[in-house]
Design brief:
heterodimer; A: 274 residues; alpha/beta; six-stranded mixed beta sheet; 9 helices; 34% helix; globular; B: 267 residues; mainly alpha; MetI-like fold; 72% helix; binds adenosine-5'-triphosphate; binds magnesium ion
């Protein structure tokens, strides 16, 4: 499960790596918001099937990193491959990076599921319509088939009785489970979770984490920004600690959470745990 | 001349044909111009939010020009001005059994072009009122920008548009009267013509006012029904407004979160 030693040599185009080995391969990523250096030389490799939990204080760049992974934010420097392809950029013969066409970026995003802190369900569509929209419009699946699939996914997240409900009629935990099902409907190879449970009432956190746990046990590649230490301990293959735009420490949960090497990690953990 | 009750009552309940025809014309002018105005407004709003600079400039310039000039001037330019210059002259147009006089065409064009600019601002504000997370969620699923606009943003924006759109149409019903300046025989000009034959000015225009208020009130009822239905379909976006407030408060129908009233400026 550890990605160490799995670094594939980039081929001639620099956009293909050996299929199925690395879901994410980022090297030397920088990102600025104006003068603010939000990602500072971040390198991250995630093997396919791996579950990585990212922790770190507010403003450390966790969300930004996640958003870069599906090109909701563009990186300013560095190299980022997702599912074996440069994300959002195309490399020309001289090795310069150019932003990809809108169509190509959209195509890459199909394979990357994103779960937002505030769900972002489509309020004018029912639960099953939320889930079926992208398969119908993007993958051009037949409507009936997409709705069938949507119901299967709803059952998988324990909401088979809610298919006709609008988001406004669902609890926070139910909404987030619909949002997870919606992302899964595109059959992504990688799932990104940005504090998927932090907008929820405490009693609803468990139901969402249970869905995420199950997804992990099914072998989904997941990058999860979360402060749920129980989840990190039980599910993560690796915990990554970010601070001020840098990855300051990474390793198995037992190592990072129980005997952190970095004093900022210690300080952060003592705040989160108490 | 003293106030003539029987004249008024007669006019109210047995209006001359020209009156009835004028009123009918007022209604269909308003309906057609509003529909075209909505379509144009949507196009302009999308252009204003386009990633292409020329489209943004074009739409912005158009809205600036139209909103910065009086409708009366626009009507005269479009109908009389264009024909005086030999640019275009509106002639009678026959579509099957229906023949549409040139002045009616010019009237519809004027109102639609004018309304498009106001609708564009309402729609742009409605599009902007949709949470950014919606576009991001759509993008994360692999929808193209156009698809996200069509299937995610616009359906939500349209709910916000409905109440101010209702007010626009209420206004449109009344604004048609300005087209009398180019000689369009709608309700107001019909009243004027009748007045110059009878000189019962007060009674005639009182009845004319009653006609307008019947039309706008009927519309308020329709608008209320539309908004109620929209709300029944699971939307929590549109706030329902009691009919009393709708008729007497003069504010935007559903109190949209976008301040349509400020947007429209003085017309
Ligand atoms: N669109 C933006 N424009 C300008 N600055 C931004 C933008 N988005 C984020 N930032 C800044 O970048 C920094 C990193 O933000 P980010 O949201 O990635 O942090 P985070 O680790 O996710 O924090 P939190 O735990 O609060 O969610 C913060 O200082 C934030 O203010
Ligand atoms: Mg964040």
């Amino acid at each position: 499960m550890t990605p160490a030693g799995k670094t594939p040599d980039a081929d001639v185009e620099g956009t293909q790596s050996r299929a199925g080995t690395l879901a994410v391969e980022g090297t030397g990523i920088h990102k600025w918001f104006g003068p603010h250096h939000v990602l500072d030389d971040v390198s991250l490799q995630v093997a396919s099937g791996e579950v990585v939990v990212i922790i770190g204080p507010s403003g450390s760049g966790k969300t930004t990193l996640l958003r870069c992974l599906n090109h909701l934010e563009r990186i300013d420097r560095g190299r980022l491959l997702v599912n074996g392809h440069l994300i959002g950029y195309r490399e020309n013969a001289r090795g310069e990076l150019r932003e990809d066409s809108e169509a190509e970026i959209a195509r890459q995003r199909r394979e990357i599921g994103f779960v937002f802190q505030h769900f972002n369900l489509f309020p004018h569509l029912t639960a099953e319509q939320n889930i079926a929209l992208a398969p119908v419009r993007v993958r051009k699946a037949p409507r009936a088939q997409a709705l069938d699939e949507a119901r299967r996914l709803l059952a998988r997240v324990g909401l088979d009785d809610k298919r006709g409900s609008f988001p406004g009629q669902l609890s926070g935990g139910q909404r987030q489970r619909v949002a997870i099902a919606r992302a899964l409907a595109m059959r992504p190879r990688l799932m990104l979770f940005d504090e998927a449970t932090s907008a929820l009432d405490p009693e609803m956190v468990g139901e969402v984490l249970a869905v995420m746990r199950e997804l992990a046990s099914d072998g989904m590649t997941m990058i999860v920004v979360s402060h749920e230490m129980g989840f990190a301990r039980g599910v993560a293959d690796r915990v990554v600690m970010m601070d001020a735009g840098r990855i300051i420490e990474a390793g198995p949960p037992a190592q990072v959470l129980d005997s952190p090497a970095h004093e900022r990690t210690q300080a952060f953990l003592s705040k989160v745990l108490h | 001349m003293t106030f003539d009750w029987s004249f008024l009552a007669h006019l109210l309940f047995h209006p001359p044909g020209s009156f009835v025809q004028g009123a009918i014309r007022t209604i269909y002018l308003a309906v057609i111009a509003q529909a075209l105005g909505v379509a144009l407004g949507l196009l302009l709003a999308l252009w204003r939010r386009s990633r292409r600079l020329p489209l943004r400039v074009l739409a912005g310039g158009y809205i600036w020009l139209v909103r910065g000039t009086p409708l009366l001037v626009q009507a005269v330019i479009i109908y009389d001005g264009s024909s005086a210059l030999g640019l275009y002259s509106f002639g009678t147009l026959s579509v099957g059994p229906v023949s549409v006089p040139g002045v009616v065409q010019a009237g519809i064009v004027t109102l639609a072009l004018n309304e498009g600019a106001y609708m564009a601002e309402i729609m742009r504000a409605a599009i902007d009122s949709v949470d950014k997370g919606q576009a991001e969620a759509a993008a994360s699923l692999g929808l193209r920008r156009r698809q996200a606009m069509r299937h995610v943003i616009l359906p939500q924006a349209m709910r916000v548009v409905i109440p101010p759109l209702g007010n626009e149409f209420n206004n449109m019903l009344k604004v048609t009267s300005l087209l009398s300046v180019i000689g369009l025989q709608e309700l107001f000009l019909a009243a004027q013509d009748y007045n110059s034959a009878t000189f019962r000015t007060f009674e005639i225009f009182l009845v004319t006012a009653v006609y307008y208020i019947v039309m706008t009130t009927a519309w308020s009822l329709v608008q209320a029904a539309i908004e109620r239905r929209l709300q029944a379909r699971g939307g929590d976006v549109v706030v329902s407004v009691p009919l009393r407030q709708r008729l007497f408060s003069g504010g935007p129908g559903g109190g949209p979160p976008i301040g349509a009233e400020q947007l429209r400026g003085a017309r």
